[in-house]
Write a structure and sequence with these properties.
Length: 176
């Protein structure tokens, strides 16, 4: 049984219809499910919460993360697109959308979404990683290096950036 402690009130989700709960309670239940490692419940609770509160960009963003974690790239893209629409000035929503697009092999759209995220926050790590991967895939190692170095300047231990930087150096045939 999944329970949610919200203001010291126990909500028994198996006995309460999701429609009877508020979006806030469903998000709290998703947090509880996450703490318990029940990722399917996290996704379902966030889907239910977003259905109740379709204008809540933060819920859409969290749902996108949950869908991505669950391997549902199309559902993640839908949620991230909603988040980007609801929160047009959120670098994270645009960067997350870029990631989903890139994972769906829609690199042109991913590049646009990543560029938008970077225009909002020049150091947006996810967007910079997406751009680095796009540049690597397009045989533009020098541009990938620039993205990786921007990440590593702020986050020196970022494993993904280090890996892509190494890959870009190998591809550019610069002596290591």
């Amino acid at each position: 049984m999944i329970t949610c402690e919200n203001d010291a009130l126990q909500i028994e989700l198996e006995q309460t219809e999701p429609a009877a709960l508020t979006a806030e309670q469903l998000v709290a239940a998703a947090d509880e499910a996450l703490a318990g490692g029940d990722f399917a419940a996290v996704r379902q609770r966030l889907r239910d919460a977003f259905e109740l509160a379709p204008n809540e960009g933060e819920i859409a963003l969290a749902l996108g993360h949950a869908e991505l974690n669950g391997g549902s790239l199309s559902a993640a893209l839908d949620a991230y697109s909603a988040a980007a629409s609801l929160m047009p000035n959120s670098p994270a929503s645009h960067a997350s959308r870029a990631l989903a697009l890139q994972l769906l092999a829609r690199s042109s759209e991913a590049a646009q979404a990543a560029a938008h995220a970077i225009s909002l926050d020049p150091d947006q790590v996810i967007a910079l990683k997406v751009r680095a991967r796009i540049h690597l895939n397009a045989s533009r190692p020098e541009l990938a290096q620039q993205c990786c170095l921007r990440i590593l300047t702020r986050h020196g231990n970022d494993r993904d950036a280090k890996k892509m930087l190494y890959e870009s150096l190998v591809n550019s045939q610069i002596p290591l």
